[in-house]
## 1
Amino acid sequence: MPPRDETSEKEMVVEASDKAADMRLHDIWVLDNINGQKADLQSYSIGLPQMEIFVDEQRIGGHDGCNRIMGSIETSGDVIRFGTLASTMMACPEMKGSDDFRAQLDQQTFNFIIKSNRLILNTENGQSLIFKKID
């Protein structure tokens, strides 16, 4: 019988816990800031974009300020990856803000931080989105 390698077992436990989904993501978040600019309510037809993150189901739902949005996510440690977002196709008077918001999330990977009821998403190329917890 080969000797047991206790170090590798400990490393596996630490690695698995580091990659666990952060359940604090599971909430409703409203857009507060996009790339350093305060989100402007006038840029959206039905209010500031918001999303509900369902960590266990690996999906999001919400709206982009005009249309309902939904899509898949993957989480690992402090990383969240958004899949392709689907949306309804209503025509609203203010579409630019909604289109920009969806483009910021669609198929993007972010590092995230949650502090002071804020979800801060950052990409490697400097994009940032800050959401405020509303639930």
## 2
Amino acid sequence: MNPFTPFGLAAIAGAVTLAAWTPAFASAPSDLRRPLNVDAALVSFDFVDLGQPGVTAGDSFVQADTLSVDGRPVGSDLFHCVAAGDETAAGLCDAVLVLGDATITAAGRIPNFEPADGQPFRFAITGGTNRYRRAAGEIIVTETATGYTAIVDVQI
């Protein structure tokens, strides 16, 4: 039995704000930090229970979401997190956001493997491809009543 709920940019519903310049969404130098609001919806969630039943060190989950802007699909994400202990211990995660022909990669620590406490947590943006090849910054995720809200602040 899965002891916890899905995690990610959004479980069922939520919002992501991308602050980045891209040719598709910017037309002038003043648009360099124009935010792009992205909604994420859960596609799949798989929990891997390696040891004793329930969350223990080494257990992991993989979650995939679809990303859209104003109801129009723009990409997807994939998260992989590994537990450092039980559900109250930290989890270490890596993520890939696929936006058209470009990706943003991120890594970080969630304060609880079951992030049900509403506390924000941060991922470092570790890189990207194509228009995000020089990406840096962070992703700040906070649990909400309907899932998760995240701010993805990308500097290029």
